[in-house]
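Please, is this right?
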Amino acid sequence: MTKEQILHEIKRVAAENNEAPPGKQRFTTETGIGESAWGKYWARWGDALQDAGFSRNVWQVPHEEEFLVDSYIRLARELGHFPVVRELNLKRRADPKFPNTRSFARLGSKASAAARIIETCRARGGYDDVIKMCQPFLTQKTARTEVGLKPEPEFGFVYLLKSGRYFKIGRSNSAGRREYELAIQLPQKAIKIHEIRTDDPAGIEAYWHNRFAAKRRGGEWFDLDAADVNAFKRRKFM
């Protein structure tokens, strides 16, 4: 992949996100282009964003999950217990480099964050004290989380099926089940081409329907070409 192609993809992903440049993890998720590809041209992801036309004084790249987990671990050891939201806020006020609670929301509920931290600690070794702090929160099943931390979203799928020469873009909480239901209704066998995991199936389905609106042939059926299919297949999560 060339440098120009990568820059084009950075601009495209940003354009689809209200001109907000993507973090490197999101960029990889949405395009399938990893650090092994862009790392041939730039030492840092920020350099790639700058070459794509985004000013260093403007872009806001989300904290990577590993950095968020590391921040949790350091603060837990500092406090001697698993941090609550108020303690995260206090740490942020004392240390501007510490992530804010909106960034920590990427880890999900407190139970989700605890599970992610334990996974990291076990992989690294030498963090038995932090694991012990996190374990009581693994079994918490509350309908509402602490203020500032979002509950885990319910995920579904937006799928692309092919039957004959036409393609269907639909959504479901279970892509495999929906594929079976369609198969028994269609005169020709429906083949699943790809599926995109998402926490907003209705919104992402509407995005693809609008993107291919000029090629709609009725309902959720579209007359797509190879470039259209490849564009859909590049996305693993939205």
